[in-house]
Amino acid sequence: MPSIFSGIFMRRLGFFCCLALLSAKPPANAAPPVEKPRLVVLIVIDQFPHHYLTKFEDLFGAGGFKRVMYDGAWMADATYSHLHASTSPGHSVIASGTYGYKTGLIANSWYDRTLNRRRRSLEDPEHLILGMKPNPTGRASTRELVGSSLADELRMATRLRGKAIAVTAKDYSAMISAGKLGTPYWYEAGLGRFTSSSFFMKELPAWVNRFNERKIPDASFGKQWTRLLPQTLYDERMGPDNGVGEEDNRKTGVTFPHTITGGETQPGTGFYNAYKHTPWGNDLVLEFARQAIVEEMLGTDNIPDLLIVGLSSNDYAGHDYGPDSHEVMDITIRTDRQLEAFFAFLDKQTGLKNTLIVLTSDHGVAPLPERIEQYGIQAGRVGAEPLMRRVETALDTLYGEDRWALYLTDTGLYLDYAAIKRRNLRHDEVERVAGAALAADSSIAGVFTRTQIVNGNLPDTPLAKAAIHSFHPDHSGDVIPIARPYYLILDEYSTTDVGTSHGQPHEYDVHVPVLFYGSAIQPGRYTHPIDIADIAPTICHLLGISMPSRRDGRIISEVIR
């Protein structure tokens, strides 16, 4: 049995060992700790598939995309693992590292059984858009979102001293990026100026009003959007300018040059909307971002700040003309030049050594179906009406005539529960019959049912994982269809013969750029898979703050020095 003296000796030995460990110096070859960034600039280019980086790489300058591609960490296989690749869920995953099955934000809109109508994300009748009454979209706050975001965690970690500002040309992308505690601003075409919501502030700051008084968009009224480079380069890479399926969405024509008036004789809502469909919309957002950096003194002290910049004009142009158009090529090259100028400004204003830059996109885009068909590949557009007829016919034939479905959209087929109850049927059986009817259409690759997802009766596949990430019991339908590649289904572009869209779990919709640049980043081109949900946790780690409360993503430790 050890004596009392041996016990005292061992305790003292342990005490002195702890002292030695505490006073020990790091190894001589240990890398010095990397300082935390003073400013994080998160750039989200709306509708920007990953392959644009390689397709136009040789046309980029040295200081724009190439700066972050070659001198930063280029994640070449970054994808979303959800079904509905669109703006709202895309920005939410970027901002929170969390998918819609937790946040509730599964798509840009969904059918609401309590309202008996399709509703947009972020609807909030208790708040207003500053300077606008009534609010035509109903979007006014992030109150409905469950959990915290990157902006929220930064604000809480710094006791509200660190600033988190989001700037875009879309109301919902700005608000989602700002979370609940950040500050969103967006260019509102209905006003012709930047604004925000009463959920976030009572009135606009004086500097924002001064910026709006400059009326920058008005100076472009009647001007022409022309190609930046010689037309022969566009013809060689993209084919003819007047490609089949392109849309004259804002009365500017489908070929260069585009005269921007919006069909008006002086600046008004039509012109301001058309303006957003040009590269000038990105110029405006970046100019506002510069002003925000200066006026809010972002990145000037040791309390970190966050600036999220959404470049929305790429999305508008992509919808109008398609990814293989002269216009998309031109706006992509111009985005490169715009970023080069913005990065130079950041270097001068805050110092790139003090700045972490992260660049990504909220979703990609599907090629114009008419263009794909020219190559002999099956493609097309199918709206809700013929698919609903299939479902109603199948259920009428099996169970008798009734109103079986309330609504059909990209988030699913919403069955009429009253009809199922009246006939004393099982939900899973009705789902199965309705799903088989949908899957019989040539535009549908397959379906997931509510019962399958709720009961966990799914195969272990990436597509099933995406279905889980996109299912919310209060917002999702009962049968969720997946389009065949190159088909546009169940949205505004599926019932026309022009323009294109996104929103499916296919490569062209979910594979987007992820680029990290900063002193804490190990440069290189990384080809292993990552999830877009990994962005927010990685930024939080580099800032030394808590992760978003319900995050799905991980820290991308392999890119950190």
Mind explaining what this structure looks like?
A hairpin with a 2-residue loop joins β14 and β15. The chain has a nine-stranded mixed beta sheet with strand order 8-7-6-11-1-12-19-2-20, with helices on both faces. The chain has a two-stranded parallel ribbon with strand order 3-21. A two-stranded antiparallel sheet has the order 4-5. It is 36% helix and 16% strand. It is globular, with a radius of gyration of 26 Å. It folds into two domains: 39-367 and 506-522 and 534-541 and 548-559, Alkaline Phosphatase, subunit A (3-Layer(aba) Sandwich), CATH 3.40.720.10; 380-489, 2-Layer Sandwich (Gyrase A, domain 2). The protein has 561 residues and is α/β, with parallel strands linked by helices. Mean pLDDT is 95; it is low at 1-24. It contains 21 helices and 21 strands. It starts with a helix and ends in an 18-residue tail after the last helix.
List keywords for this structure.
single chain, 561 residues, alpha/beta, Alkaline Phosphatase, subunit A, Gyrase A, domain 2, two-stranded parallel sheet, 21 helices, disordered N terminus
Question: What order do the helices and strands come in, and which of them pair?
Answer:
Elements: H1 4-23, E1 39-45, H2 51-55, H3 65-70, E2 73-75, E3 78-79, H4 87-96, H5 100-103, E4 109-112, E5 117-120, H6 150-157, E6 164-168, H7 171-178, E7 183-188, E8 193-195, H8 206-213, E9 224-225, H9 231-238, E10 258-259, H10 269-276, H11 279-295, E11 305-311, H12 313-321, H13 326-349, E12 355-361, H14 369-373, E13 380-382, H15 384-399, E14 405-409, E15 412-415, H16 417-422, H17 427-439, E16 444-449, H18 450-454, H19 462-469, E17 479-483, E18 487-489, H20 507-510, E19 514-517, E20 524-526, E21 530-531, H21 535-543
Parallel strand pairs: 1-11, 1-12, 2-20, 3-21, 6-7, 6-11, 13-18
Antiparallel strand pairs: 2-19, 4-5, 7-8, 9-10, 12-19, 14-15, 16-17
Helix pairs in contact: 4-7, 11-13, 12-13, 15-17
